[in-house]
Fold this sequence. Notes:
The chain is of the alpha/beta class. The protein folds into 2 domains: 198 residues, inorganic pyrophosphatase (n-terminal core), CATH 3.90.1640; 108 residues, Diaminopimelate Epimerase, Chain A, domain 1. Helix content is 49%, strand content 18%. It is built from 14 helices and 11 strands. Strands 6-7-8-9-11-10 form a 6-stranded mixed β-sheet, sandwiched between helices. Strand 3, helix 3 and strand 4 form a beta-alpha-beta unit. Helix 6 packs across helix 8 and helix 8 crosses helix 10. The radius of gyration is 20 Å and the shape is globular.
Amino acid sequence: MPGKTRTVCVAHAQDVDGIASASLVKLATGADVFLANYDELIEILRSLNSETNLYVCDLGMNQSIIDDFVLETRRIVKGGGKVTYIDHHPLDGKTSKRIKAAGVHLVHSREECAGVLTYQHFRNELPRRAAFIACYAAVTDYLDNQPIAKQLIGSSDRQLILLESTMLSYAMSHERNRVSFSNRIVNAFQSLKFPHEIEGVPKLATRQAARMKDMLDLVEKEGVQLKNFAYFKSEKVTLGLVANLLLGIFAVPVAFAYRENSVSGMVEISLRERYDSEFELGEIVSKITKTLGGMGGGHTRASGARIPVEKMEKFLNLLGRELARDPKVKQKRRKALRRRAT
């Protein structure tokens, strides 16, 4: 006899966008939430039975997992379940077709962050104040100037949204994005609490701000600047925040912070791009890491990667080579291709 259909959301564990997406799915559907990193997604899908109403949010697709993703989602759909994939990372036409062919409902746009896309998808099932959660995602994912995000933020007090977004991001960074802490945020958002109302968040955010001030001095002294990017090895502060500091200090279009994991033998890298830059950072990182036996990707403003420690020098060379190409020329080519397609 068939069991009761279970609703599940698997979302990115490492940033506000993933946490916000999971929070909105849970608010709208009552889903059980699994916060995961990219390398954990497939294992979670394998653990789900076919009678599952599944939402996957803010977990960008790459060639290392696409085969298993299609296999598992097809299994769920064929067994009577439903799968909705909500994401904003680059997705080529071939991969998009494969996902749809598996029976997955694809909600995808590179214009908005996953949190905003999730809010739009469930807008009729969500309370009006849930829009704040989508705004936190847009601000911290550097996509707050996009059409829908801009409209949502413009409908409220922008300063309040910026304050709450930064407080949440800093608190999560202080806790190194621990899943237990992130789950506490998801649960608090079910009663539509503001970040400053969640126990521990203001105190942790203040501590993180102090760390960032100290890190600013260190990055100025020890950061490495090359032609089109700067980088820094960080063991204490969240990599993405350090990458942001590098952008400001060295006035480069792209910056990254990294740390080595002695247990896995991998380097973890977080990259950021300035608002006025035109590089396709997520695509560049995906391309490079694929040749280095690692994995990575993201979107235009933010991206992440994991590569073997011994490939770090090669990563620097390849990144420099890719960024040396004129982004305006690439942009013109993309526009020409779009005109031909229409």
